[in-house]
Amino acid sequence: MAQGRSQLEPDERLLPISKMRADEQLRVIRAACSSTASFVNATRIAEATGLDAKKCGLVPAFLLETGLLKKAGGHFSRYRPTATGAQIAAAWQEGDESGLRALRSAWSDQWFALTLRDRLQHGPVPRDGLVARLLKTARAETRRMRQAEVLLDLLVAVRMVAPDSDGFMIWRDSPVHGTPHAHDRTDDTATPSPPGDAHDDGTPDEGARSDSSSRAQPESETHHSESDTSTQGADIPPPRQESVGPSAAPSSDVNADLDLLALLCPPILLADLIRLSPEEVMQLHGHLRGLATLTAKLRGQAAL
Asked: pTM above 0.85?
């Protein structure tokens, strides 16, 4: 159910209605911003778009909230385009891409755009994760989940975010746009196994195992060297310079000044791991096993 501003809690943010698809709401936005009459209302929007008038009357509240429309006076349901809305309409006259670009620019400082750009700046994120983040940032209850989904669909429609693959989403202007996930990458340096190294069922024979074992140490040294090289190029934050209480939690704000504690404390999620190559995942596993073993030794406990 759509909610007007008066029906929300004081700290809740307004979300688009859930009774109309995102592409239909985009048509309403274009019609409302393009109006040159003294006012625009549900009836006039319905006439311009061919959509249901009752549903059309529910859309302008979000446009009013995001600076595209303003009250026209006389009646609470009468609106007229703001200067920003009129500029978007003028851009739309030049073509769909120009109109969408102008709309993206107008919304670029809105809370939902900042939320998604912040969340997607490090790589693809599952769609469900973005919906949950929008709902949390809006400080809305889970019963408004569908509205958050429509908001995400609307941002896809205006080409602010885009589907990537496997249910993931990316920020369209991100440098990672169009790059494959880690699990889709191919290692150009990998050498195919010679015939006879594996049985028909895919299991290696004894000779292959022995040969693999003899190569384990040099390969480990090679990976270690590569890891050192990549680490030298990474932007590693310094250790924490001030003491904190035992109950103090590191900030989850990715834009905050990070120190090592804030970098290492947040859990690594499955969605994070798929951004790594197979080789990087194996390196991470080895590093974690080594850290667990050394920590157990220092604590006088048995290693895992």
From this structure: no
